[in-house]
Amino acid sequence: MSQNVAGPISFGNVGRTRWYRRGAFASQTAYVALAFVLITLLVSVFAHNFLSHGNLLNTSKNFSYIAIVALGSTLVIITGGIDLSVGSVMALVAVATAISMKALSGTALAAIPYAVMIAAVLIGFAISAFIGFVNGLLIARIKLSPFVTTLGMLSICRGITYVVTQGRGQAPDGPNVDTFYALTDGKVFGLPIPLVYLLVLAVVMGVALRHTRWGRYVFVLGGNERAAQLTGVAVTRVKVSVYMLSAMSAGLAGILIAGWLGSAPANLATGYELKIIAASVIGGADLAGGIGGPLGAIIGSALIEVIRNGLALFGADTYWEQVFVGTIIILAVLVDKLRTREPE
Amino acid sequence: MSASAVARQESTPVLQLSGIGKEFGAIRALSGIDLTINPGDVVGLMGDNGAGKSTLVKIIAGNFHPTHGTIRFAGQEHRFDKPLDARAVGIEVVYQDLALSNNVSAAANVFLGRELVRRVGPFSFLDHKAMNARALELFNELKSETRPRDLVKQMSGGQRQAVAIARTRLANAKLILMDEPTAAISVRQVAEVLDLIRRLRDQGVAVILISHRMPDVFSVCDRVVVLRRGEKRADKLVSASSPEEVTALITGAKEFA
After folding, report:
1. Nearest residue in chain B measured CA to CA from A234
2. pLDDT beyond 80 at B6
3. pTM of this prediction?
4. What are phi and psi of B99, to 5 degrees?
5. CATH (domain of B87)
């Protein structure tokens, strides 16, 4: 125990922080997790088919797409930035992957097993990585505002998607299309595969954030960027990396949705950026930077999906979803504000 | 190390500035500054706003090059291109705003940019245990009641100073520049910080204390250096001066001492 090294030092003049401001209680994520459990219980009591196998499968799959992107988006939010381009990146990558798969089917690659699919997916990821790289470079090196930069990128990516497709949906096709569907819309141990990707990525992200230098720098960028700069942290590199990861998480979700729908429509994920940011924020990521984590991103996304699903099962107008989500965003930050209020 | 080597090292000044000048376009911020700092010296650097204090500190810390003059550190001439170069030879800066990140622990701040890691295959993971233990040692050395795992946002001003100073102790710095460390904290915390400076001195570290507060300089420093209009107007032992004289030098009522 490192505490034993302490020797004679005492902490007479510094009290411990109160229990409700420490550990698990010290985070908005904990409160929202509690709210999530309560709402889920409520929905499962009043909507009998909520707990049916089919519905649980669907719900867990639906929220996974949002949650995967929310993971990447949360990274950006922790550094004090924001990424509005994720919805458009999802569409562009989905469309690009589907088109590549079709186009490559006619080439020599088709002779090599799985090569067409692998190449198409790699093209999709390369595009998203490039978009993230451009975002990151403009923001970290040229110091443009993240909001404006990614807003521009939102428009650019959506525009390219429509130019390329002329608004028509693109279906993945080719020799490996069945494998593609299995990898994007299949099941592993009875779980929908997007959920499996989500959980694996969340664990990797959690470990990377807490236990690597990179993760620590992500938090410090949100806490005090100048301190990071002065102590020799490669600020630009870390910042570019989070925007790249955010765009790539959007790319992955886009490819998964293309597999799920069997087609990549040009209007795919329109407006998702707000849903994704809402999920991150509800889960406890602080838009001012410095706070957030994978668990919060997942819980935030799950909460939104349960509300949507619950409303549908009750036979209520699902347009109410947005009203509820908005209310929960405000409630979540309100509770956090009240909890951390300093005595005056 | 032989006895003569030890003696030589002790007699070598930590920092020797000769003829340092700095011009920003047509504005002359500093001219002809000579300054010698020995191990264990605590030197108060005083002067009115715009006297050139922060320019001088930034030159020593590697933020920019001097237009004229040379910097010798531990007997060797250096030209620092960035703060990290100055840090590499043993010059550390405690910035006025302390450059701490509120949302991570005290230990994380101490080790910021110099984290200890353990390699596991191709990956390296933070060695939290070793960093917390070392941070606690440093806080003990500074006699500061600071817990390595506490978040900086929960800490008092004095504790924050201790964290910022512990950071400079990590690499056994030979010279520590402190920019207005007592400007924005309570009386009790000022006493704490002055004690921290004395402990650094006892360990043979040289400290340059940039301050506006006359009582602090006179209670903790051996020497006081006064800048006015970019020139050094005084460099004398505190015991041979008085607050009145220093005030006169700062305001220009007295030209040189």
Report:
1. B113
2. no
3. 0.86
4. 50, 50
5. 3.40.50.300
